[in-house]
Design a protein that fits this description.
Neuraminidase, 4-stranded antiparallel β-sheet, 222 residues, 0% helix, single chain, mainly beta
């Protein structure tokens, strides 16, 4: 029963260096983060939470999700409006800014968060409840279906971990594990707050409690 489900073990909850943190990716000692409020993309020192680099997102768009592949960060960009579905995948050169030559449309114009499974970029779509592999040509490939709305995801230990909800206006948010080999999805723990984004640092998970302007590091118990 969900009511008896174990909760995550919070290890750290800190105030973000800017309001409304949205995208999150852990890159060693650096957190790659975006702000829905400032419309900027940031590199943040993981220990001090000091901003070490920032850039403005072109077109006054927001960065919704991010992942790193090699030296570059790939992000989902789009207007901050509920009735606009024209999201695109862009590339950011750390220390330089957005690459004007790289822009891929998200399938059906929809997408929120990104991961990389060692072969392909993987885009999640919140309301369609899908994870879609994106080829180097930008075309969609394999589709995995999630049982609930996907508010963040990451790839770790050969599987996808999802932050999910069935009611975004509530605090009913969960961590689920989606096996790419079988398509089976298992609910692991209750988050208990409205999370945005999900990242893994090799040992622990990270997410944003956006409306509280906080960044949370946590472990799964059991």
């Amino acid at each position: 029963m969900i009511e008896r489900m174990k909760s995550i073990a919070e290890l750290q909850r800190r105030t973000a260096p800017f309001p409304k943190p949205q995208a999150i990716y852990v890159d060693g000692d650096t957190l790659w983060l975006s702000s829905r409020h400032t419309k900027k993309f940031y590199a943040v020192d993981r220990a001090t939470f000091a901003v070490t680099w920032e850039c403005v997102v072109p077109g006054d768009d927001s960065v919704w999700g991010a992942t790193k592949v090699g030296d570059d960060v790939y992000v989902v960009c789009g207007a901050d409006a509920v009735d606009v579905d024209a999201r695109r995948i862009r590339r950011v050169r750390p220390g330089v800014g957005f690459d004007p030559a790289f822009s891929l449309p998200c399938p059906d114009g929809m997408g929120s968060h990104l991961s990389h499974d060692g072969t392909s970029l993987v885009l999640s779509q919140w309301y369609p409840q899908k994870l879609i592999s994106i080829g180097t040509d930008g075309k969609p490939g394999r589709v995995l279906t999630a049982p609930h709305q996907v508010v963040g995801h990451c790839y770790a230990h050969g599987t996808f971990y999802l932050a999910t909800t069935t009611n975004e206006e509530s605090d009913d948010y969960f961590i689920e594990r989606l096996d790419p080999a079988t398509g089976k999805c298992e609910t692991l723990a209750r988050l208990g707050f409205s999370a945005r984004g999900l990242a893994f640092d090799g040992a622990n998970f990270w997410t944003n409690h956006r409306e509280a302007d906080q960044i949370v590091m946590f472990a799964l118990t059991g």
